[in-house]
Every structure is written in structure tokens, then in C-alpha cells.
Amino acid sequence: MTASLAPGATSRADARRNRALVLAAAQRAFAEQGASVSLVEVARRAGVGAGTVYRHFPTKAALLEAVMQQRVDRLAKMAADHLAAPDPGAAFFDFCTAVITTTPDNQALCDIVQSDDGWPRALLRSAGARFHDALAALLDAAKRDGAVRADIELDDVLAIFTGCVAIQRLRKARGGMDRSAAIVLDALRAEPVGLMVTKRDAVAEVRNETVDRNESGADSCPVCHAALSRAGTGRRARYCSAACRQKAHRRRIAAAR
Questions:
Q1: In a 10 Å sphere around its CB, with 0-12 CB exposed, 13-18 middle and 19+ buried, how is residue 139 labelled?
Q2: Which parts of the chain fold into alpha helices (H)?
Q3: Buried-most residue among 47, 53, 216, 230 (CB within 10 A)?
Q4: 94-127: per-residue pLDDT in tens?
């Protein structure tokens, strides 16, 4: 026969299970309703009694800190796991994208953490240090690989996280990176690629800049080859007359079609 667990062991296992249920329920509740949600509501979502919540977390501040510590530790582990990737640059930007796209739902908790109301932060400081160390290692690997600009520091990455999360919340982006946030993140790259801030001019794509242009300081008109007159001041004339200028314009329009 299999020996049954001692009463003390069973009690500890139940306590760990209940604590995990409370933390999971609190994470969802804070994300959906903000930090004002009550502990009674958290207990209801977790399927446990309010007394169970209070035994593990005597105050809402303690629960908030535990939820944040759990999330930051998960991010630290994710960053550490990315260090084993064969492409350090791709791993770094994949991690940054994950942080930016998953953090907006936790903004209410972030606001509490950044406040100065004196609630305990010992667990969170420890988790934050682990996260910073893992992110710094991931950043250094990407810089050595040449994927990230050499002048980028950890504080730059953290500031960009803050800005991009604000953009995600402002644009109500769900399920992916907002275009504007992607542009900001792209600034970290050694050679920015992909999205551009400005749109290309459709005409400029097909315009032949070498047709009938006189940028080299030549002395003759590129249309009729007549000598150009020199003015005492101002820009040198490109064409000998308005008629040649109009002919050059028509040629450019025809070349663009």
C-alpha cells in the first residue's frame, strides 16, 4: 500500500495550492479592474474563503507586491532563457516585444509600485534586481552580436519600455505591437529596418534624377546645349531659357510614367 501523506504535509500542500490560486485570481482581477479591487472579490475569483486570502496576504499592499514580484520574476526568467538563443539580436528584440505587449494590462500595478505611499517593497526590489541583471546580460549579448547600437545602456532600454507601454495603452493595442511602439523600439537597432516614420513619395520612387539635371556645374544647357549665362549672385541657372526648362519638365513626366 502507498503510505498516506502526513497531516502536516497535506496542510502545507493545500496552503501552497491556495496561495497560487489567490495570486492567479489577483493578477486577473487587478488587470481587469485596477488596484482598487477588494480582497473579497479576489477570494471569490479564487474560489476560496476571504479568511484564506487574509492568512496569506494580511493587506492588499502585501498581495499587490506578491503579484508584481511574481510577474517580474517571470520576466527575469524569460530574459535568462533568451540568453541561450542562437541569435542574440533576435532574442533581445523578441524579449522586448514580449515585455511591451504584455505589460499594459499590468499598468495599474505599475502605478502602485511607482507611488510613494510607503507600502513594503522588499520582495519587489529583489525581483527587480534579478530582472535588471537578466536584461543587462541579454542587452550585452545583442550588442556584441552587432544587433543593438553600441551606445545603448540598460536605462535606455527601460525608458523605451516605459514609452512603448504608454503607446500601447494610448492606442489600445491588443494582441501585438502597435506601429508607433515598433518604430520607437526599432531605434535600438544598429541598423534600423522595417517600419519608417515617413511615407515614401510614390512619384519619387520612379523619378529619374539623372534626366536633364545640371547639378555638376556644367556651362551648357542639358536640353539644347547652349552656353549658360553666369549671374553675379545666386544659384547658377540650369537651363538657358524657360522653354528648355519646360522641355526638361515634360521629359521627366514622361520618364515617370
A1: buried
A2: 7-33, 39-46, 50-56, 60-82, 88-102, 107-114, 122-144, 154-170, 179-186, 202-206, 242-256
A3: 53
A4: 999 999 988 766 555 555 545 555 545 666 788 8
